[in-house]
Amino acid sequence: MSCKLKKSFIYLALSNFFFMLAGYIIHIVLGRSLGPSDYGIFAVVVSLFSTANLILTAGLPGAVSKYIAEDETKAKTILIQSMKIQVTITVIITTLYYMSASALASLLNDPALIPLIQLSTIVIPVYALSSIYTAYYNGQSRFKLQALLQTILSIVKASSILYLAYRYSLHGAIAGYAAAPLAILILAFIIDKKQKITLAFNYKKLIRFAIPVTIFTVSYSLFTTIDLFLIKALLQDNALAGIYNANLTIGRIPYYLLGAIAAILLPQISKSTSTNNLKRTKQLIHSSLRYIMLILVPVTFMISASSQDLITLLYTDKYLAASAPLSIFVFAVAFQVIFFIMASILNGAGKERTSMAIAMSGLAVSAAINYILIPRYGLIGAASASTIASLMIMVASAYFVYKNFKRLMDPKSAMKIILSSSMIYLFLKSVSLSIFISYPIAVIIYILLLFAAKEITREEIAGYLHHWCKHLNIFTY
After folding, report:
1. 24 — alpha (psi -120 to 50), left (phi > 0) or beta?
2. Is 440 domain-assigned?
3. How many Cα atoms sit within 13 Å of 277 on the Cβ side?
4. Is 205 helix (H, G, I), strand (E, B) or coil?
5. Burial 177-216 (b: 16+ CB within 10 A, else e)
6. In 3D, which of 301, 367, 363 has the Cα closest to residue 334?
7. In a domain, 47, yes or no
8. Domain enclosing residue 161, as ranges
9. Residue 476 resides in a domain
10. Does residue 350 sit within a domain?
């Protein structure tokens, strides 16, 4: 991994950490204070407006990041043109979402959701517009500024949601989601208002890129939440939805830990493929996948081995029924992380229709398997269905990345990482220690095993620590 890529990863990893921390504080506090039933309603409504948000925050911002990365001299022009498009689409989507509240509630077999879905409409416009600025900075590789804004967003988000939840309960928690993106939108506008338009840009390129990426992202989002929606619709039990969402929240820790890689990869892959630099593209694919696996695999095995301890620690015994699904579902998340990285590679290389087709197919398969397994096996069935479908889309995406670039991760490295992680899984299952003691021991065992297998070296660790210390100041840009 290059020096620049390492620094970028550090900046965005730190901001992703704060984003993840804020999200977990929100969910844990609300899960404990609202109880499984109201928490289940909260989770379903948030998942609904988050899916609607993605129609506006995935495709067009991705196009902005891609085309600015290819030619930064047109950055301001692309920003203005994309904002015009975004405003128009936002008005349409926001109106449709509000008018669809009754139909959505009917599909979920709960008319009581209607006013909450309508209330959540206020979140959509501010997220839509602020996402353009985030993509604007990402495309220019202004990762320090992007990380700083995301950290501010995380702090404001947690503060506003928890304060309003304390004052107005469930309604306040949902309304609180609008405050943070509004703050970011104002800050971003102030920072860049003096920049001038330089060169012309064909706005149709943005639309052509955005459409398949939007379909991909919305399909992928539904893929990751279809199990929760079907639990709500088929089992008609808010408490079970809340318990399953506790499983989702903890199970997605690996995704949030590694989300920074995908944000960095898309513009980097776009730049290397637009200049026909195949060697650079292969290097990006290999190094990124290796660094992901080094973190993803052990974290997945650790969560699976200690699922009961994590549920009771974070959510209390009221959510204990989520521990068995979590031990399975966390592997679904691991497969989803790898798929999402592969999809970012394909999207950056202009193969967005391929990733779109995989995501849509995966959604159909996941919905079918969940529909069969949930009535029979409940929460365990949902977790199992998601894991099977996630494995399928991961394999499909890896096939197309290899087909296009003839490069993935070294199989020997992958095997060493998986075997080392399996050993710490067995260790955690065999001891009866607090996770505050067993986790550090497991990490030490994992690192020692990697050293013994010569998968990592002292020089590699020293080099990474050197870059971390040298470039730790993320507040200059």
Report:
1. alpha
2. yes
3. 12
4. helix
5. bbbbbbbbbebbeeeeeeeeeeeebebeebeebbbbbbbb
6. 301
7. yes
8. 3-470
9. no
10. yes
CA atoms within 13 A on the CB side of 319: 37
The pair of structure tokens assigned to 168 is 């107005």
| Cα maximum dimension of the chain | 64
CA distance 154 to 270: 28
Q: What is the distance between the terminal CA atoms of the chain, rounded to a whole angstrom? A: 22
Residue 330 Cα distances to 62, 326, 390, angstroms = 27, 6, 11
pLDDT in tens, the chain (477 residues): 455 555 666 676 677 778 888 988 999 999 999 999 999 999 999 999 999 988 888 778 878 887 887 777 777 888 888 888 889 999 999 999 999 999 999 999 999 999 999 999 999 998 888 888 888 887 776 777 777 888 888 898 899 999 999 999 999 999 998 887 888 878 877 777 655 555 666 777 888 888 887 888 888 889 999 999 999 999 999 999 999 999 999 999 888 777 666 656 656 666 666 666 667 777 777 777 888 889 899 999 999 999 999 999 999 999 999 999 999 999 999 999 989 888 877 877 777 788 888 999 999 999 999 999 999 999 999 999 999 999 999 999 999 988 878 778 888 888 999 999 999 999 999 998 999 999 999 999 999 999 998 888 777 666 655 554 554 443 333
Whole-number Å distance between alpha carbons of 246 and 16: 20
**How many domains would you assign to the chain?**
1
Residues 6+ apart with CB under 8 A from 460: none
Measured distance CA(28)–CA(250) in Å, rounded:
10
Whose tokens are 């993935």? That residue is: 408
Is-contact 44 109, C-beta < 8 A? Answer: no
Using alpha carbons, list the distances in angstroms from residue 313 to 243, 302, 316, 389, 465: 14, 15, 6, 29, 32
How many other CB atoms sit within 10 Å of the CB of residue 172?
Answer: 17
